[in-house]
Specification:
Helix 1 crosses helix 4. It is built from 11 helices and 7 strands. Helix 7 links the parallel strand 2 and strand 3. It is globular and about 55 Å long. It starts with 21 loop residues before the first helix and ends with a strand. The protein has a 7-stranded mixed sheet with strand order 3-2-1-4-5-7-6, sandwiched between helices. It folds into 2 domains: 42 residues, no CATH class; 187 residues, Rossmann fold, CATH 3.40.50. By secondary structure, it is an alpha/beta fold.
Length: 282
């Protein structure tokens, strides 16, 4: 694994109690929860008295984070704000740019690197890689929510982002990531970034099987030299075992998993799990 600097500290504004009623109030509580806490810490905040009267619908939303309809509603409500603002799960690009850019450098050859931000939502991660990579990249930002994809397309067009490398390309794609192989084909991507997508599936009531399917799909579409970088706050003792178990195809493929402590942010320690796959020797 590459050496990774500590996370850059980000200031977090104190959030007042939410007073809106109905779904708008619930969705803002969900946004607050997701933006401050990792998926495995959600339950503790739901029990807090400040949001107790919202807890029924909020819990329902969180339990259904594997559903397209949940995220369409989430981004529809968030889009009603006057000014667009990127929504970042865990942290933004600035916190990990000194990790991602060296990773791109290590994989760079004469060809354009194909990068996927899986479950991008309205994160600025993909556009920032496109903007700041000195090496040519083709960045695809994919999400199951058509609303999120549309918002990002509109925002990017408004900002008229320019890449550092003129050969770089940026696309936005509506895609269920359980079907990555159907869209991209085998061994077509150099780097896949997962910042909260599989965590959200694992936290959902019916998302466990989907999380496993997404992981297997990632390993199928990665080139031999490619990697999946998964950012999470789950302890390595648990997450590495899950990745190794679910990433294997008995008799065909095994997953190699490495872990690097990224740093601490808002009292939470984050890790980067690097997953590569190779065929079983016959």
């Amino acid at each position: 694994m590459l050496s990774c600097p500590p996370l850059r500290t980000q200031q977090v504004a104190c959030c007042p109690a939410v007073h809106e009623g109905g779904f708008l109030g619930e969705i803002r509580i969900m946004a607050l929860i997701l933006n401050i806490l990792s998926p495995r810490r959600l339950g503790k905040l739901i029990a807090n008295t400040r949001v107790r009267h919202h807890s029924s619908l909020t819990t329902e939303l969180i339990n259904n984070m594997d559903k397209k309809a949940t995220w369409d509603r989430f981004y529809t409500e968030n889009s009603k704000a006057t000014n667009f603002k990127n929504f970042e799960w865990f942290f933004g690009f600035d916190a990990i740019r000194d990790f991602i850019l060296p990773m791109l450098h290590s994989q760079h050859n004469s060809d354009v690197l194909h990068v996927l931000d899986m479950g991008c939502g309205t994160s600025a991660l993909g556009p920032c890689i496109y903007r700041y990579s000195p090496w040519p990249v083709h960045v695809t930002c994919a999400d199951i929510s058509a609303i999120a994809v549309r918002l990002m397309q509109e925002h990017t067009e408004t900002k008229a982002l320019q890449p550092q490398n003129t050969s770089s390309k940026l696309d936005f794609l509506e895609l269920d990531c359980t079907h990555l192989h159907k869209h991209f084909g085998s061994e077509s991507l150099d780097l896949i970034l997962d910042k909260g997508t599989i965590d959200a599936l694992l936290r959902s009531r019916e998302g466990g099987a989907k999380a496993s399917q997404v992981l297997k799909q990632c390993l199928k579409v990665l080139r031999d030299s490619g990697s999946l970088l998964q950012f999470s706050d789950e302890d390595p003792d648990a997450r590495m075992l899950w990745l190794e178990k679910e990433g294997q195809e008995p008799g065909m493929m095994v997953a190699d998993v490495g872990v690097q402590e990224v740093g601490e942010l808002r009292g939470v320690t984050y890790y980067c799990y690097q997953v590569t796959a190779h065929p079983v020797a016959q």
